[in-house]
Please model this.
Amino acid sequence: MASETRVVAVVVTYDALPWIELCLDSLRGVDTVVVDNGSRDGTVDLVREHFPEVRLLEAENRGLGAGWNIGLRATESRFALLLNADAWLAAGALDRLLDFADTRSRAAVIGPRLLNQDGTLQRSVRGFPTLWRLATEYFFLRKLAPGSAALNAFYAGGFDHDETKDVEVVMGACMLVRREAVDEIGYCDEDYFLFSEETDWCFRFREAGWEVVFFPGAECVHVRGAAHGGRLYRENLRGHLLFLSKHRGPKTAERARRLLLASLRLRGIVFRGERGHSYREAAAWLASGNAAALLER
Model:
């Protein structure tokens, strides 16, 4: 590995207009690779025309994690910044992330504070899925006490995002990843298409004794949902089942399928319009087979 290269940035794109320009502008002067997963909206042409210094790799769309892996395998550096195409760094954020990383030699992943476009906080610390945590989320129990660690651990209830802290998961919109840790535990699991790939990776890092750290001293703006527009709800559910099957066993995954099915059937009754329709569609998918069968498809 080339020791003189401290960091490279990897950005995975799929129909990334209009945000990709802001994303890449924030990476000016940083060795950057864009992995495009088959965009058809002019993203590739914009990158070529306005960012000729960026290395562009065109790939088959096998998901976000697969795109990260392509970028990581094509580069050499001590650290890799994985940045969503709908996110951009605040001034000085990368330097602050790198300086902090030098003080935490066992930090495999460092996540900055995420902001919405209006400057408000975007809560970005998560907990690993469990049956109870899925129940608090999908039956809306967390809304009874959103600041409670008991009822909202899935979204890190009670964590104010103002302190540097070891956490379970940071959102994959912006992550500084230590290459040494990747070399030890392996690349992102490409069985995840979109959603839960960073959850799985963070779990594997922590299981191997590495740290996942939230660092509010650096900030990044993230346009939440821009990459998928809510169109991949089923894939979010599949990510939960895959994580639980892989790390907690097929019986737990099957219990989670039944829990999710009951919650989405209830939601499909309560909610009308497009939202209710998406819940009913997801419930029909969950009812079409057991967890093992759904994950094989």
Q: What stands out?
A: The longest strand covers residues 211-222. The chain has eleven helices and twelve strands. The mean pLDDT is 95.
